[in-house]
Amino acid sequence: MITLGNVSRLLAGIVAIATVFGALLADFLIPAGAAQHLRNDAWPPHAKFHDAQYIVMSLLLGVIALILLVRRGGDRFPTLGSACAILAVPWLALLGALLFPGTAIQDPEFDNPSPLGLHPQVLLSLTLLALLLAAVLLTARKQPGTARSGFGE
């Protein structure tokens, strides 16, 4: 039977899988992306270190969220809300990094396609954050009163 809780879990699970594998694939394994990141000879070792740190952080946060989602009660608001908050961290961090002086979403020598006028990483971040918001709202709707009382109750 399809329930709001199952749909919420599915939405969050999609984001969790993207979080576990996204940065690893895009920044290290897929040649076109890796050439702009960890396999970019123009990047100093310390910049590569921080990208590798982001990859490992994203993987770990995704795994933690998946564990919360698959365990019993993973469709309940406090658990699902916690998983969604954990999953939002790397995607919000990607957007927040744009606010720091001297940062750019890509190096000038690369030209990435811009669907909807947004850099693909920004579009992906906004899409995944929208899925997380939908998951939380569906779960809160399923359990009246939880949205008012907060995650910990």
SSE inventory with pairings:
Blueprint: H1 4-29, H2 31-34, H3 45-70, H4 77-97, H5 120-142, H6 146-149
Helix pairs in contact: 1-3, 1-4, 1-5, 3-4, 4-5
Would you summarize the structure shown here?
The chain has helices spanning 4-29, 31-34, 45-70, 77-97, 120-142, 146-149.
Tally of separate helices: 6
- How much beta, percentage-wise? under 5%
Number of strands: 0
Shape: elongated
Q: Provide mean pLDDT, rounded.
A: 91
Walk me through what this model shows:
The structure is a single chain. With 153 residues, this protein is mainly α. Helix content is 68%, strand content 0%. The protein is built from six helices and no strands. It has helices at residues 4-29, 31-34, 45-70, 77-97, 120-142, 146-149. α1 runs parallel beside α4 and α3 (45-70) packs antiparallel against α4 (77-97). The protein starts with a helix and ends with a helix. The relative contact order is 0.17.
